[in-house]
Amino acid sequence: MPVSGRKHKHLCVIPIKGQPCDGCRARTRDCTFDLPPLDRGHRKRRATQPAAIDDSAHAADNHEVDVRTIQANVDIASGSLITSAARDAHLGNEQTGDMNLVLGPICNTDGLDMDMLIQTQDPEPLDLEGGEDQESHFVGSEALAGMALRNHLAELTGPVSDTFRRVSTDPQLPVYFIKQQSYLYGKPPSIGQDAFQAVIGACDVDGGDEDVLAKSLSVLESITLPAMPFIDPKRIDLACREPSQGGPIPFALLAGIIAHSTMYLESTRTLTKILWSHVLVGLDAEYRQPRLQTLQLAILLLSSRPSENVGQREIGLARAVGAANLLGLHVDSTSWRLPLWERRLRKRIWWTLLIHDKWRALLFGRPCYRILEHFYSVQAMVDKRSDLQKIGVLEQVIGELSLFEASLPATVQWNANASSFPGRSLPTGALSLAVSYYGLTMIVHRLLLEAITDRLPLQAKAAMQGGLVKCGQLINTMETISPTDRQLFWMPYSSNHVSNCASLLLMIASRASMLDPEVASLATMEIDRLATSLISHYTASHWDVAESALRRLSVLLLSARVEIPAIGTSYQRVNECLGIPVVVSSDVLLSLMGISELDLFAWTDPSQTWMGTQFTNPAQNGAHAAAGPSSYM
């Protein structure tokens, strides 16, 4: 055994007796390790996992392995690239066989499969398998139970087979993917590339921003991804620089990144609709051959502002969930034999889709596309329970939300930082998390008020006071938002949470007018304070979150000003800010806003009765509507 082999025994791997070890073969020199592989009494492989899964044996068929290729593969699998200094030092000393520079920075990576480091090649990524002519679809093992191939499926554990590929290492939980031919009706033209060129051309018109792609990628990496990491920028960089390793250049995704950044780049803000019109054409073409980048582009659309086309976003989310199921993202890929970057990306894309699904259900009163038993259920609102039972369930949820707020790290404790405004510094997405948290608590408080009847006046007063406190906290947060904060990441549902605050305040003012006039007066004062804050933000920078919230607030104030005359002044100020005439008829106001139906009140006060239906899965009755609040950044 050579000296370097004694120091780094993982190099002395002889997959085939009589041939040199992997380390010496990579350096094209004679191997001094003459002893055969030892049988150390390890448990033998199961019959269902033949040695074909060992990628080092597969690599042994290649007579020469490039160290630079190993370096690139390990970097990608680790999820974090090695520094350029370490890489240069390694490549300059590759004749010495010292692999510390390669393995050192990543040996402590959480969740990293150490067997993967020993292999000379990473497992074949599912996302890139088959090239441009084939795609891999998830298929449940139950669907194959009656097939004649059942006895042979257990043997399909290699990296790639002709038809099936098994990616799980657990013989009790087999996971199969089946290859399908892409573009059965003919391959379309390069629509994604055409969309990218159209986006670049639109940005360059009339002396526009020539470096818009670099700036957009910077916005994505510094503002969006720290809050919702559903894209790996290193994979994009690799695909653009070395398509042979990182896959084809994602032109449609790059176009979507440019369109997504329009809310953060003043030079392209006026081009939002034009750019998205080109991107949507590219997205339709992407669904002809769904990949992970297809879902990433769909999520970019769902996570972008302003959120105007609610109906098409609903259809787009359903389409993305269907593609995610096809690609097997609904199954935990932790133990799959896939590169680490792909396993991480699968989880992050799936959870991001789940976040959008839960918020859409809560805010618009529509059933969830995905139902998991980990989430809280508001089944108590539709069951035939007593009023006290309903109150108890909802108060328990409120208590758990308070515990969640208290458990947040100090870096995102918005209440603690708000007192030091304007000197405080919060990471991107933290204030969006705060508004989302208050939006969720206000939904629960509204449900609590609906559950309390007039026969329980004491409980009603307590619930109204609790709702006032949460509304006041959201308004305090809105008042402390600085111009810099407006440029950070904000979920497209933020304006819905703000208008829901106004809806709850109007509900409290209406119910408290007879029970407690003082609470009713406080509620109207809070409405005026909220309107003042939104008007200030909109006047300063035409912030789209404030504009969307003001438009909903105008409709709410119009519908309630007859019953609550004290809000008349706030209504006039909001309409003057938006440039909408103060009208008497709600129909006239809706027509001025381009809305012809009164159903828009479902924006802020949706029915929750759908949560008790049995159409999805009797074993998981009731859509678990309130997803874990930690996911809402």
Automatic annotation (TrEMBL):
Residues 275-375 form the Xylanolytic transcriptional activator regulatory domain. InterPro entries: Carb_Metab_Trans_Reg (IPR050797), XnlR_reg_dom (IPR007219). GO terms for cellular component: nucleus. One of its GO terms (biological process) is nitrogen catabolite activation of transcription from RNA polymerase II promoter. Pfam families: Fungal_trans. The keyword Nucleus applies. Keywords: Nucleus. GO terms for molecular function: DNA binding; zinc ion binding. PANTHER family: GLUCOSE TRANSPORT TRANSCRIPTION REGULATOR RGT1-RELATED-RELATED, ZN(II)2CYS6 TRANSCRIPTION FACTOR (EUROFUNG). This is Xylanolytic transcriptional activator regulatory domain-containing protein. It comes from Kwoniella heveanensis BCC8398.
